[in-house]
């Protein structure tokens, strides 16, 4: 059987061979010796045992910081009985066909959930083939053979055959149709803290991100996109731009100006000299923040589309009281540390692209479409990402760069300035939620109406094919934690000129904020402890367990210290249960401070506990930044914020103590990138209420708090 | 006009305008990409380098101002004893996530430890708040700096 790993030679030549020192060797290393990996044992199209007995893994998902490279490698290593460090893992090119039916798309905390089973099954088959090859050679029962440390051991005799010795025999036979998976009691790698495989190279500055790619003969480009959404480039001083030393080309798009030069700084200077002028239709120029959020809120007065219908069979007593509340959530930028960038070369009817994408298969297809090239003429070299958070699910930077590259004779690296990156994002949409909840005498809901208004990301992405209610809008509401009462959810789509897109936490980031704040309000109205109230409303044992865990660990039932408010939230999404208790105080300057956050998680089978703890730190800080301070506002049709001085993000001195408890579980593994980001916002709002008695119903909390105070 | 800067111990001459920020000289001209572009406004610290041993934002340092001076980037720092203590501590604490800000964080931590070999939490807050990490590695950076301080002092972490 031939090794069918089909990464191209170009990846090896241009690629990141030094990505992780000895840890990360491109798969193409095995292709360099002649015909691609002839004689290797292919477990599938992206996992193989090479002729020299190494495990070669092309990462089917993308690494943006969430640790998936390490986690997926651990899963392969476990089933193939090697140390994770021994796996040769590479970041794969954009290639939908190679990974089908898996999607290369990395978002929505899907990676482990999608990869877990097919990867284990493929690896187990390769292991079974190696065991069978050894058993045949030894004329021994296969049951007497075990895989261990890159070799097969004959238990009765102690004889050993390395994978390298076995691969020719194993590869000559058909791969077994199925093979037993290891049971959790046999796990040696999974569930144990694994240091990140890409950590050393990243810390030493040798890891290659998209923005670090250097191609021979490459030029550097800077871009100014029209600040007004829907506007156009109306003029520029081209002579002044060209007068800047080092400028090679001035390239105009309808809505953008790009300068190509010998270095990025010269290109940036020339953009300033060019002094581009912009124009936009009156409606685009006239877009203002108050009107936009007002229109979103007014969407709540429309009938909307019914997303979830109250079950008419559920008959409950009439409400003794009705409680209503309305919540508002801001536009947010992603502000990845690595600004948008893309290296592209268009030459002889073919295109090569180097950048970091969360969905390299789609980015490649978008480039091919933009160029009018057949897909096979476009090669997409994916790279590590300096943060993604949903921003790099969009291919806009790739489309822009290939459009530039086709008009110049050089490979070109196009880098967005921070100000350009922040003002030309696909923003977390502003949303409004209104609840009308009927409660009985004990304060329990007997009716629940939840109206939602805001942008539909799916409608934009799917275009005319889109029908029905955007699943993202009601994500987290379809299988609610709280049961026993009928609910109705409606959605009214409201669009503005502001482009909207996926943002870490996705749909449940918004629904959890609204629902978990509302449930807190119901608890307050019933004068019941907020954790106790939630425990009354949910019978789900896993939800109850994470709530009980944070109750204990956070000191919830202890006497509260002065200037300390505790707030709770719990979610069940992405096959993960998570509860958080936030402890906040307010300073004399009225600034909200997060002192401590206690998180309990049940994400099923743990892959890498160090990765889980890292993701919880990450989500608490990323989501906490957004909840406290995050807000993009619009004036004159343009984004008002531009850099970290006016788009505040958390810094070291503002970082709380974060304590994480991981519930032991062998349920199927759940997602970890999104949940902490979604759970922290409502926990903070609820803590602020516990401390101050003020119910802030609009994000960001600091601004909402100041407006109430 | 040639500008001579000692980068990681080696004098190098560059024919660039004196006002070109050191960041772009390093990344685009010298093709040393360990130093990262984050904001070009001195707000995020991703571009941090040491200039004559002091932390500087390379995005805010004109190449001309670095002429005749000694610049240490992450690539050079990682080969020095203090840099090795820091990168080892970073490895052992499993700090990085996306990792993009980490070269700048480590450079800032080196400057902090040079000035204060045993920083407490308040000193770490003061020394490290010029560096943004969007992934939220702050708790592990704090722990890693303490571990590096112990390694650097010759003790065990």
UniProtKB/TrEMBL annotation, chain A:
Limits of the Aldehyde oxidase/xanthine dehydrogenase a/b hammerhead domain: 204-282
Key word Signal present: yes
Keyword line: Signal
Entry annotated with the keyword Signal: yes
PROSITE patterns: TAT
SUPFAM superfamilies: Molybdenum cofactor-binding domain (SSF56003)
Signal sequence residues: 1-31
Record-given protein name: Molybdopterin-dependent oxidoreductase
TrEMBL record, chain B:
Keyword Oxidoreductase recorded: yes
Protein name: (2Fe-2S)-binding protein
Domain of life of the native organism: Bacteria
Record keywords: 2Fe-2S, Iron, Iron-sulfur, Metal-binding, Oxidoreductase
A Pfam family this chain is assigned to: Fer2
Source organism (scientific name): Novosphingobium cyanobacteriorum
Residue intervals of the 2Fe-2S ferredoxin-type domain: 1-77
